[in-house]
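Deliverable D4.2, example record:
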Amino acid sequence: MRKLIIGLALVAGCSSGGTMRGNPAPLVPSNDTGALNPYAAVDQFMAAVKAEDLQAMGAIWGTPDGPARDQMSQDVLQQRELIMLCYLKHDSYKILGDAPSMDNTRALSVDVTRKERTHATTFTAVRGKNGHWYVEAVDIQPLTDFCAKG
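Output generated by the structure prediction step:
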C-alpha cells in the first residue's frame, strides 16, 4: 500500500501515436487485471485514460499486491484516478523504451503529447503476484502544465 501511495504522489494521453513497437498490446483475459508485459500495461493504462474509463484504470494501476481497485476504497480510488486523468489526458503517446529499475520493476520512457506540447516522462511498471504487470507510478513533474488552469 505504501508504494501505491508513493506512486500516486508522483502522479499528484490508447493513442493515435501508439507505441514504437508497432504491435498491439497483448491482452489478459477480460475478467483478469494487469497486462502481460510492461509495455502492454502502459498501453492499456493510457487507453483507459484516453477513454476516461476509471474502472479500466483501476484494473491496470497497481502494485505487486495487485490492482489499485482492490487496495483502497472506491471513493479514494476515484479521487486519485481523476487527478491522474488531469495530468495524463493526451492526444497521443509513444513508448520510447524501458530499463530495469529497483525492486524488480521496469522504468518506461514515454513521450506524452497534448495539443502542440510533448513531454517526456517515466512510467514505472511492476509485476504483480498474478504474474501480470501494473502501472505502479508515473512521474508527473514533466506533465504539470497539462493540468494547469488558464
